[in-house]
């Protein structure tokens, strides 16, 4: 016994266990499956998806009780959530703005108000403002007007409170809090401090919110509903995580049963599963070290390794002749087994070098796992296998397989016919074959669909920003970006009047550009001029002149205030909003304008085209993501071509015979095109993950072709080769078939495609087998 292979294996195993247990972190950010070489607009889109102001919004609804109880619970919940430390702000309608925000709005109101100009403070302008105030004093808002009037007769503070308090286009108020239009739900709006895709942090936020709700609700009948990007992200992570482990266990059990039946020995079953476990650990370790985190999809991909890596010891055990030792069997089949490992490795290299983080992870996992399993089968298994190795003969099954394989060779032209017909059909279908919607990469169940409906419903009721559309205004620095967004704002009012959008928000409303603030400050009259204008305006009103001394003082103070800086809002909800909408991007800055209630995509796009402003563009999150998916697919297909060329070169070097290479490549090529055509006929749109799946079919199918065409010295040896290939197919179909039942379309695509492709690869390989002619 050679001890060094076993020692290396044990040391490597211990290292992998340590890395996986102590240092591996799981993430489910689907942005990992977006191209690394995306355009600036796409990069900005990914940044907004991960940590944009709209991505951190969480919407809450309380239902199931009468309005009074819902309102009381809403108030208690809002205060408790504010105290939790998880949120930048919590709005429930009970108090639109914090006391700090109100004080700062009051202090800087003339620098913030778009109405601040010289005419506004003229005698005529002041007279009109006073007349308006007289009418408002008799309205329901009279108490607030009376309180503000001495210091703010022009109504700047009230206009700002309405603007930032959510009145107007927002939800209605009942019992002091926001309610839905039908009065059945109390509504709250919050923004988490943690980014939407910090899934661990968002999981804790959700857990704490539910715990807080349980202690604040005033009736056990009241139910809490939550929605927002972070809620979807947590749901996706949990679904992918649960799927990965559940399906891994199911696949392992199925494969174990198949191998136990094939081997007839529990000891051999355990021995045969060691390369699988070692390969999975090696794959996770390689990804963790290479990328820092392991994506949940990569974890699910571990199921696929069961179907691949288990093949290598299976070929070794089931092809062993009664008189042979394992070393002798390895010596006989190793050239073919080596080719099987190398072709799969080269298929993995195609994914590894693709330039996409998520796909590269899958490639790294597969490459490391398959290579480890192959090397362990070659060097470790013979050293630790028992001296007396008993494998069930299964002669009756082998005889049936031999007769079936011989019968199939009568249809040896079928693979070529399928290849040609499928190629023509797919060429005719063209671009109609492909699914380019990124939304379809998320786990979608009936619960997920219900969440989407709830999200849209709450977004409409609350007047929350649209998560799909943003207008990005570029500038060389903060001030340039702010100034350009301010120039765009008046034209956006046209869209509001036309009903294309219900409203919009921009950072310049909270932090006007220095240029605009300076102009507003310059428009403020000195105290003597303002006093004369005010006296003239008061002549036609019942107000006493001395009532407005606070107003004169505030205007004079505003004339000498330092211009408002972002730091003024630090630590407030409005500051968080402004910070999220004014972001550094590349070497410059971008001021984002969030849109509410987009009614017509086409009219919005037409409006943006008509602006002819090269510094402003519409960021369509859905459109840009779909465009990236198309780029991803096309580039993946290109890399696949290079991968196939490399595999053919490896086969040519290993087999040194063109006819042998053709005999191996034709069946798997027919299986790949046949699988693709069949999926299309079933109405299944092909995603970029079907491309990954077909690469796996290529590696697996080549293995079947290699072993079915393995030169045999007699009929018994041929039968053993057929039997071993059948066992491998059964294991592969079981492992990948389990994935087809996943809730994640990604894992579904991989599982169903590979299972179908594996079966077709075996059938076509048997039809075209050289040994059967």
Automatic annotation (TrEMBL):
Spans traversing the lipid bilayer: 244-263, 268-291, 337-356, 637-655, 662-682, 688-710, 722-743, 749-769
Protein name: Membrane protein
All copies of domain Membrane transport protein MMPL, residue ranges: 178-386
Membrane topology: Multi-pass membrane protein
A family per Pfam: MMPL
Keyword Membrane: yes
This protein's GO CC annotations: plasma membrane
């Amino acid at each position: 016994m050679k001890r060094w292979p076993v020692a290396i294996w044990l040391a490597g195993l211990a290292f992998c266990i340590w890395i996986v247990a102590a240092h591996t972190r799981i993430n489910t950010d689907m942005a990992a499956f977006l191209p690394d070489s995306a355009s600036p607009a796409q990069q900005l889109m990914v940044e907004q998806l991960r940590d944009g102001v709209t991505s951190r919004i969480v919407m809450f609804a309380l239902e199931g009780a009468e309005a009074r109880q819902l309102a009381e619970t809403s108030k208690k919940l809002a205060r408790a959530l504010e105290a939790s430390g998880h949120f930048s702000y919590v709005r429930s309608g009970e108090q639109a703005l914090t006391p700090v925000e109100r004080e700062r709005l009051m202090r800087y109101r003339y620098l913030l108000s778009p109405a601040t100009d010289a005419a506004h403070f003229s005698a005529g302008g002041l007279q009109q403002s006073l007349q308006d105030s007289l009418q408002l004093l008799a309205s329901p808002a009279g108490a607030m007007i009376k309180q503000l009037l001495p210091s703010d007769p022009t109504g700047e503070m009230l206009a700002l409170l309405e603007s930032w308090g959510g009145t107007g286009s927002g939800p209605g108020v009942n019992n002091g809090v926001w309610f839905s239009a039908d009065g059945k739900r109390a509504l709250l709006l919050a923004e988490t401090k943690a980014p939407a895709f910090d899934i661990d942090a968002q999981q804790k936020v959700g857990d704490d919110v539910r715990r807080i709700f349980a202690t604040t609700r005033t009736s056990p009948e009241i139910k809490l509903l939550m929605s927002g990007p972070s809620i979807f992200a947590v749901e996706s992570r949990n679904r992918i995580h649960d799927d990965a482990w559940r399906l891994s266990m199911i696949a392992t059990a199925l494969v174990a049963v198949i191998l136990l039946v094939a081997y007839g020995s529990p000891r051999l079953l355990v021995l045969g599963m060691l390369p699988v476990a070692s390969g999975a650990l090696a794959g996770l370790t390689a990804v963790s070290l290479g990328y820092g985190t392991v994506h949940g999809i990569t974890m699910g991909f571990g199921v696929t390794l069961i179907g691949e890596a288990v093949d290598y010891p299976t070929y070794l055990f089931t092809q062993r002749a009664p008189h042979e030792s394992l070393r002798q069997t390895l010596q006989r089949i190793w050239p073919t087994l080596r080719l099987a490992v190398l072709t799969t490795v080269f298929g993995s290299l195609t994914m590894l070098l693709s330039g996409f983080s998520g796909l590269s992870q899958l490639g790294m996992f597969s490459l490391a796992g398959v290579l480890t399993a192959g090397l362990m089968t070659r060097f470790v298994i013979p050293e630790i296998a028992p001296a007396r190795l008993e494998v069930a003969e299964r002669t009756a099954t082998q005889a049936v397989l031999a007769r079936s394989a011989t019968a199939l060779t009568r249809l040896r032209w079928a693979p070529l016919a399928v290849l040609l017909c499928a190629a023509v059909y797919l060429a005719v279908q063209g671009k109609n074959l492909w699914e380019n919607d990124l939304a379809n990469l998320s786990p979608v169940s009936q619960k997920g669909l219900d969440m989407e409906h709830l999200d849209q419903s709450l977004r409409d009721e609350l007047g929350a920003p649209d998560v799909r559309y943003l207008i990005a205004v570029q500038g060389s620095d903060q001030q340039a970006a702010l100034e350009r967004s301010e120039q765009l704002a008046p034209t956006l009012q046209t869209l509001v009047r036309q009903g294309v959008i219900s409203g919009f928000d921009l950072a310049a409303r909270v932090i006007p550009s220095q240029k605009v603030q300076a102009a507003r400050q310059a428009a403020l009259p000195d105290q003597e001029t303002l006093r004369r204008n005010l006296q003239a305006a008061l002549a036609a009103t019942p107000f006493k002149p001395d009532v407005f001394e606070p107003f004169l003082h505030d205007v004079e103070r505003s004339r000498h205030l330092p211009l408002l800086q972002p730091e003024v809002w630090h630590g407030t909800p409005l500051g968080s909003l402004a910070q999220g909408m004014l972001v550094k991007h590349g070497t410059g800055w971008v001021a984002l304008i969030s849109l509410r209630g987009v009614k017509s995509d086409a009219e919005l796009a037409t409006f943006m085209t008509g602006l002819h402003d090269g510094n402003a563009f519409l960021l369509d999150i859905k459109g840009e993501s779909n465009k990236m998916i198309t780029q991803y697919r096309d580039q993946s297909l290109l890399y696949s071509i290079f991968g196939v060329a490399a595999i053919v070169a490896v086969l040519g070097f290993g087999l040194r015979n063109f006819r042998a290479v053709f005999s191996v490549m034709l069946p798997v090529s027919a299986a790949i095109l046949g699988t693709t055509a069949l999926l299309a006929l079933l109405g299944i749109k092909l995603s970029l993950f079907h491309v990954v799946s077909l690469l796996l079919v290529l590696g697996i199918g080549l293995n079947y072709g290699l072993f079915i065409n393995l030169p045999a010295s007699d009929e018994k040896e041929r039968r053993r080769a057929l039997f071993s290939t059948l066992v491998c197919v059964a294991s592969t179909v079981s492992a990948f078939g389990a994935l087809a039942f996943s809730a994640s379309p990604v894992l579904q695509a991989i599982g169903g495609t590979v299972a179908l492709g594996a079966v077709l690869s075996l059938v076509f390989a048997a039809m075209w087998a050289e040994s059967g002619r």
